[in-house]
Amino acid sequence: RGRIGGRALLWCALVAVWEVSWGQLRYSVPEERQKGSFVGDMAKDLGLELSALRDRGARVVSEGRRQYFSLHEKTGHLVTAGRIDREQECGRLVEKCVLHCEMIVEGEMKIYAIEVEVRDINDNAPSFREAEMELKVSETTAPGLRLPLSIARDPDIGSYSLQRYELSGDEHFSLAVQTAPDGEIRPELVLAKVLDREEAAFHDLVLTALDGGDPARTGTAQIRVVVLDANDNTPVFSQAVYTVQVPEDVPAGTVLLTVSATDADDGVNGEVKYVFQIISETASDTFQLNTDTGEISLMGELDFEESSSYELEVQTRDGGGLFDTAKVSITVTDVNDNVPEISVRSLLSAVPEDSPSGTVVALLHVQDRDSGANGEVKCSLDMELPFRLRSSLGNYYSVETSRELDREAVSEYNVTVRAMDGGSPALWSSAVLALRVLDVNDNAPVFAEARYSAWLPENNAKGALVLTVRAWDADWGENARVRYRLCEGQVRGAPLLSYVSVHAETGALYALRSFDYEEVREVELWVRAEDGGAPALSSNVSVRLLIVDENDNAPQVLYPPPASSGTGAGWTGVELAPRSAEPGTLAGGSVTRWLVVAVAAVGSLLVAFLLALLALRLRQWRRSRLLSASSGTLRAVPASHFVGIEGVRAFLHSYAHDVSLTTDSRKSQLGCPGGSCCNTLPAAPPPDQGAPLLLPEEHS
């Protein structure tokens, strides 16, 4: 029993299947920021919770020896691990300075590649390698002579780099600027007026270099032009460009190449000296130039991985101040002098025995600082082990299982990873990974029934017990402890959890609100049972909750509307219906509108009928007058041939009807009084029964 409990505690610390997912994040930060400065909100950009980053062992690693960035544990921000000098890390020849690092989430075996662009700021002023320059010009030199001047250097790039030069001090000279093919601007001193040594033996000038900052940073150099007697030959280099290839393991003190120049003048004017005209700070500490012989030798050590090429400019001067320049290009070739480096970025110390094939147990980073074939690395494992290597992002490798493990056969493994480069002879290194195999939680909870149903009367009390679900787990200890929870869902647009809840320990299902059958008639939900294993196993069961209707709604009369309170005005109680309407005929909604139209039409016909009848009676009366005038006597006219007020009133009363409506009934009722038919106008008598309009005269 104690053995099983120990296994259960170990199981709680594992993750069943660990996967490697690769992503790419890009940020930018100005250079020279203080340590701890904000770079980017990694937790937000990756959609990760801060607690997840802390609990799962998230950290940031950088390639190389220096760590530029770190992960702030409280905020999840990527911050600087120290001041970053863009010029020191990338130099001025690189337009976009990008530093690479990775964030590793050990708890999930995930790697996120990060690129951070270090933006340039105007933190460097232009500077001249020589703060003071001396030029010698013969007094016989014609105006228009151009003398190259020392070039200022600004480590910044873009608009913050060197933009222009300015010259001040003397009217005999002006400034011209030439643009080299690589875009570099080079100042030249132009002789504007003829010099006179007797008038002035030297001229002092100030050359100012300005960058594009706001305000602009500046650097100055003092120029003294010494006026000499005539020197009509300039020194000339044997080559305009000198090139040489040097292996990176060449010892210090080795002479790499020799530059040479000749001058046709005699004496001092024919003696030449050599100096570096343009050279970077790194190159000045690496190379040395013999001013008399022109030999360029190695002072320090070369490292192909640090710098693969150098561009220099050498100047030669004769005794009269005339000079020539030449370029020197030194290319460093790679030597296989770096052993492959294996870094274990993440390691799973124990793995469950039922882990599927392909489960990642370790993340490795392999790097060889050499280039070409010398930097190509191949990794391998022992073939008899149930593990394999898979190449991932960049130089990352994942160690994963190649088949299912069996703890009863082998409980521990020592996996040796070997990395070998492609040099000749090849260099190699190895790393040993120790792994333990553990048992697993392999039984899920099982419900007592495949499906649950319950009936709940409406208007129930809040918190009423609906039913209880039960599940059992065949495992032991914490793995057999079953807890219940509801799966997410909605009822009439509201969360399911606002209607019902389940007790986590007992499985009792409770109603959180009073149900109304007229609103919700049934609720379909799922209950999940989980055990205490790591990872937890679960099963779901369907629960159907049926709401039982109760007689809790009284009928409502929607029509006719009730009388308005206080006004005395309301419905008159009279509606019109066709004479032929049968009992039970529906009168609410659109039928009422048609009844109004019908009544209006009948009324119009009635008026027309009365007018026609009146005209007819007037015509008959007029004819009787004429007849009486001719015959002398109008005997009688039956009263039934006239329509009076009482007849019209009886006609209207025949259309009175009763209407009753209810809210719940499927049928509205229309009732017409049975005695209304007797109050309509009587039909005209048959022709043989009609009373004569005129009585016959009595004949004597």
What would you note in describing this structure?
With 700 residues, the protein is mainly beta. It has five domains: 24-119, Immunoglobulin-like; 127-228, Cadherins (Immunoglobulin-like, Sandwich); 236-333, Sandwich (Immunoglobulin-like), CATH 2.60.40.60; 341-438, Sandwich (Immunoglobulin-like); 446-548, Cadherins (Immunoglobulin-like). The chain has seven helices and 47 strands. Strands 1-7-6-3 form a four-stranded mixed sheet. The protein has a four-stranded mixed sheet with strand order 9-16-15-12, with no helix packed on it. Strands 18-25-24-21 form a four-stranded mixed sheet, with no helix packed on it. It is flat and about 165 Å long. It starts with a helix and ends in a 29-residue tail after the last strand. Potential calcium-dependent cell-adhesion protein. May be involved in the establishment and maintenance of specific neuronal connections in the brain.
How many domains make up the 3D coordinates?
A: 5
Shape: flat
Strand content: 35-45%
Named CATH topology of the largest domain: Immunoglobulin-like
Structural class: mainly beta
Key words describing this protein structure:
5 domains; 37% strand; Immunoglobulin-like; disordered N terminus; mainly beta; four-stranded mixed β-sheet; 700 residues
